[in-house]
Automatic annotation (TrEMBL):
<dbReference type="Pfam" id="PF00210">
    <property type="entry name" value="Ferritin"/>
</dbReference>
<dbReference type="InterPro" id="IPR008331">
    <property type="entry name" value="Ferritin_DPS_dom"/>
</dbReference>
<dbReference type="InterPro" id="IPR002177">
    <property type="entry name" value="DPS_DNA-bd"/>
</dbReference>
<comment type="similarity">
    <text>Belongs to the Dps family.</text>
</comment>
<dbReference type="InterPro" id="IPR012347">
    <property type="entry name" value="Ferritin-like"/>
</dbReference>
<dbReference type="InterPro" id="IPR023188">
    <property type="entry name" value="DPS_DNA-bd_CS"/>
</dbReference>
<dbReference type="InterPro" id="IPR009078">
    <property type="entry name" value="Ferritin-like_SF"/>
</dbReference>
<protein>
    <submittedName>
        <fullName>DNA starvation/stationary phase protection protein</fullName>
    </submittedName>
</protein>
<feature type="domain" description="Ferritin/DPS">
    <location>
        <begin position="24"/>
        <end position="160"/>
    </location>
</feature>
């Protein structure tokens, strides 16, 4: 089926390049959504002496992640590509591992540090193609996401002593 004129996108980034950027952003979306689910799970299931602190901290983190998935998906759409939106698609695209069972509070923190850092690496891996394409909106999004995840990883690490 041929594309109609309304579907043609001419934003100064070639279709092939937009596709590559979209693929990278789709991996970032999958990582972000998977981290959202894990953080929300830990919010529900944390126990122990740090319960109140971690319960509130995890809530703040998963709320921020819930907003972030929308921003990432909307950028994919702005590039003219479909945003993945199913568990099966996210499972194929994510670099994060789901947890079996309920870890203790300290292990939850360690796992979230590892995953926050993994999301930073995913975002950073997209930068070369975004930079080469002069895709400033995607670069801005990636920079903001890296800042959030690096800061969150630092705050979680600080709780480990």
């Amino acid at each position: 089926m041929a594309k109609n004129k309304a579907e043609h996108i001419d934003i100064g980034i070639e279709e092939k390049t937009r596709q590559k950027i979209g693929e990278g952003l789709s991996r970032l979306l999958a990582d972000t959504y998977t981290l959202y689910l894990k953080t929300h799970n830990f919010h529900w299931n944390v126990t122990g002496p740090m319960f109140n602190t971690l319960h509130l901290m995890f809530e703040t983190q998963y709320t921020e992640l819930a907003l972030a998935v929308d921003l990432i998906a909307e950028r994919i759409r702005a590039l003219g590509l479909p945003a993945p939106g199913t568990y099966s698609a996210f499972a194929k695209l994510t670099s994060l591992k789901e947890e079996e069972g309920v870890p203790n509070a300290e292990e939850m923190i360690r796992l979230l540090v590892k995953d926050q850092e993994a999301v930073v690496r995913t975002a950073r891996s997209i930068f070369p193609i975004v930079d080469e394409a002069h895709d400033e909106p995607s670069a801005d999004l990636l920079t903001q996401r890296m800042q959030v995840h690096e800061k969150t990883a630092w705050m979680l690490r600080a709780m480990l002593g």
